[in-house]
Every structure is written in C-alpha cells, then in structure tokens.
Amino acid sequence: MLLQELKNQANQLPLSDRLELMRSIIESIQTTPNPSARSNSIKRMKGLLKNSQPAPTDAEVSTMLEQYRMEKYL
Q1: Could you count the other beta carbons within 10 Å of the beta carbon of residue 7?
Q2: Which residues, in sequence order, are CB contacts of 11 under 8 Å at separation 6+?
Q3: Cα–Cα distance measured from residue 27 to residue 67, given in angstroms and rounded to the nearest whole number
Q4: Which of 10, 26, 52, 67 is deepest in the core (most CB within 10 A)?
C-alpha cells in the first residue's frame, strides 16, 4: 500500500479511529530503538576506554587482583 493510499483511507475514518491510529503510530515510534543513537553511545563508550598506556599483561592483572583481594580481606 502506498503512503498516499494510506492517507486517503485514514481521512475516511471517524475522528475517534483516526486518534486511535495516531496513538498507535506514536507508540510504535517510541518503542522502536534508534540505531544511530545506539551507535553514537557505543562510540562514546569506546572513547572513554582509550588511553595512551598499553593494556596490562595477564601477569599484571593477576598481581592487581591479588593486591585487591589482600586489601579487601586482610
């Protein structure tokens, strides 16, 4: 169905039905996720993770975890 046909059919509906159709369309727009907003959020989060230091090695992570646990439990 073409948009113009849909508009013509909507104009033939009683006012209460047109209002209900409008509510339904608005609901469907509000519940549809916006992919561009999500991708922008992901890009910003990736930017937060960037720094000039290299990632820690497995050995460094193990040492950090051990130190954390010693501080927490001792």
Answers
A1: 10
A2: 18
A3: 51
A4: 10
